[in-house]
Prior knowledge:
Blueprint: H1 8-21, H2 23-30, H3 37-56, H4 67-90, H5 110-126, H6 129-157, H7 159-167
Helix pairs in contact: 1-2, 1-4, 3-6, 4-5, 5-6, 6-7
Amino acid sequence: xxxxxxxxxxxxxxxxxxxxxxxxxxxxxxxxxxxxxxxxxxxxxxxxxxxxxxxxxxxxxxxxxxxxxxxxxxxxxxxxxxxxxxxxxxxxxxxxxxxxxxxxxxxxxxxxxxxxxxxxxxxxxxxxxxxxxxxxxxxxxxxxxxxxxxxxxxxxxxxxxxxxxxxxxxxx
Length: 172
């Protein structure tokens, strides 16, 4: 079975689901907090590696002949479910604008964490070291994007966000 079929949930989840729940969330998701040269480089790396993670799947096959593949399926399903939950939580911030409920109680970046779990599951399903290498570059670029987003949140929400940063870890 062609591995590109694994993209269907992500394509159907992010913007269609977010748009359906909240047009405000849809607009917020379009915002970019990137300003510096390193951050612009990170955005470019993010986009290139995301394109590679999606595009490379058209040339790979899903396999189900080892325990590793079934572990991958489990991570893929877990990542998809967590991604849906993080989108729903993102679409419903508190009155002050900071997302602190749902998965945001455990991670300041549940969408990125769930996206990583999702792609890690795919990596095990397709058994590709190249895919794993691209995923690591993708995750490195995400790390720098998070810095930009958190700087923007501090500017927007001030001390309240700083307190939230002390209470909740960046990653799980």
